[in-house]
Structure formats: C-alpha cells, structure tokens
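Tokens in:
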C-alpha cells in the first residue's frame, strides 16, 4: 500500500508548470510523470495527446522501469536511475526520482540527450521539493481545497 497524498490546486499548478518548463527547455515533444505503478500524475505535451495513449505510455514506462530494477539487481547494482531508448525519429528518457516517481520525456532526434538529462535532473530536484511540500501538507488541514489520491507501488497488482 502506498502513501496517501493531498494536493492543493496551487501545488498541482506548480507541478504542471515544472513539467511545462521541462518541455520547453529540453525542446521535447511530451513529458509525463507517473508513479512506479504506472499511475499518471501529470503530463505536458507540445501537441494534443489522446488520454488513453498517455495512460498507456505511463503504464508501459513504469513496467520498463520496474524491469530495469530487476536487471540492476541481477548485476548486483543497487538501482539504475535512468533508461534511454534511442529510436530513428524519437527517443525516450526515463528518470526515477528519489520519491519513487518517474519522469518520462519524449524528444526528437535533433535534441541532444545530454540536454534532456540536464533539464530532467533540474526538474527532478524541483519536483522533489514539491513532493516534500505535498507530504507535509497532507498531514495538516491548512492550504485550501485538496484532491486526495493514493499512490501504490504496484507490487500487489497480480495478487489475488
């Protein structure tokens, strides 16, 4: 069972702004944030994206990252923090955050992966600060209207 969070409208806007800034600075096509269970938390795209497509990408990225965790264990590495998929026209970079969230960014072949990594690292630190703030506010009643959601790690997905 994951931790429950209560997020204010202001915090939600700050998260959306962080992802929009990442999208613009890294010259990306799309940016997604999910938990390791594949639950989409936020997204930003240069083009209008289909909601089902966004959910599917978030779920598949979480699955890929969870498989990568197992690969790390097999080679006696505590964890791999990032995955890079290089395609002909598009690339995907996935970065795990210390709070167990994932940032996924889709970008074209003209965008250097180093640029993407640089801005994902910066945005990751910004999001971590927001997550800590959300965690603190979840235990208090101040801060305005909230939307409550529960994050699950996905480990019990197939348990009956």
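Residues out:
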């Amino acid at each position: 069972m994951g931790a429950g969070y209560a997020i204010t409208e202001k915090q939600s806007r700050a998260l959306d702004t962080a992802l929009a800034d990442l999208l613009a600075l890294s010259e990306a096509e799309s940016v997604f944030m999910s938990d390791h269970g594949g639950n989409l938390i936020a997204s930003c795209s240069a083009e209008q994206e289909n909601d089902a497509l966004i959910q599917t990408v978030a779920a598949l990225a979480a699955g890929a990252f969870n498989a990568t965790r197992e690969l790390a264990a097999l080679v006696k590495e505590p964890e791999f923090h990032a995955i890079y998929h290089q395609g002909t026209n598009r690339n995907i970079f996935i970065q795990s955050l210390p709070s167990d969230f994932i940032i996924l960014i889709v970008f074209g072949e003209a965008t250097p992966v180093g640029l993407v990594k640089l801005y994902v690292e910066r945005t990751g630190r910004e999001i971590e600060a927001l997550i800590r703030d959300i965690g603190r506010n979840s235990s208090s009643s101040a801060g305005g209207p909230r939307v409550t959601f529960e994050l699950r790690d996905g480990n019990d997905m197939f348990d009956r």
